[in-house]
Amino acid sequence: MKEHEKLGGWTLIWWLFNIFGIPITLPWLIYHIYMILMKKHRRGLLNGKVVLITGASSGLGESLAHVFYNCGCRLILVSRRKEQLERVKQELISTHYTVPTHPPVIMPLDLTDINALPSEIAKVTMIHGHIDILINNAGISYRGDILNTNVDVDIKVMLTNYFAQIALTKAVLPSMIKQRDGHIVYVSSVQGKLAIPYRSAYGASKHALEAWCDSARAELSDKNIKITVISPGYIRTALSINALTGTGQTHGVMDKDLEEGYTAQYVAECILNAVLSNQKELIIAPVAPKVAIFLRWAFPSLYFWIMHRRAKRLAKEE
Predict the structure, then answer these.
(1) Is 202 a catalytic residue?
(2) For strand 74-79 and strand 244-245, is the pairing parallel, antiparallel, or unpaired?
(3) Nearest alpha carbon to residue 167 among 119, 215, 239, 131
């Protein structure tokens, strides 16, 4: 899968110049320069902002740590794996030169220990006094069929991908509301918008998360709390390797779709831009998933037929 599906800005300007000449190219060039300057200005506004990132010990969370730290943010990195958090912290300090330098704070924490979240957040909030941006990135995937999946697995996936996310949000919200400013980002999935076979528990957890976000966005808008939902397609991470099977075991296989997916760095940059431009939703996916989302809305019967065919094909491949 290619990283950029559209022509780059300057390449597009050159193409417009060759086809249409100055009348079209000049306004586009002015707009392009304006957007570059605005992006640089918005990045500057992030300097010194306190950003809490979950799932920060690897994959997309680690890449998010790099792009936000490079903007001069004061990071709080959350994950269960303390050793990996230490590694990410040292890499951030040694890779990015920032003035002043804000060493990231690491916070080893199991997000599924929901009752402990308020006190843990209270402790970490004391370090910087508040949290400006919360990025709910941690999550777990699933591979299995509904008939042979233990209910305990459905519960664990929902606990990690839904209940833990909203519990952490509710722990952070009081300080954001007090300062009347805050931005909360949720890393969902394309599967939060459409369900596919053999991903039932995962899709259900992401559907629930996106519905909760729609309600929360409306309720919190008057308090100047912004909510952004990111729905990526396949990302080149260890998500499928760590995914749960129907029995609760680790899948342990790198899916081909993930191997050919977007890099975590690319998705992290897209998320940064979504935060800078205050986007409410962002789908990071090639054309096919976007068409499927449209079909699910406009022609549900056709979508159901396509998913039926896909389920039969996947069952034969097992």
Answers:
(1) yes
(2) unpaired
(3) 119
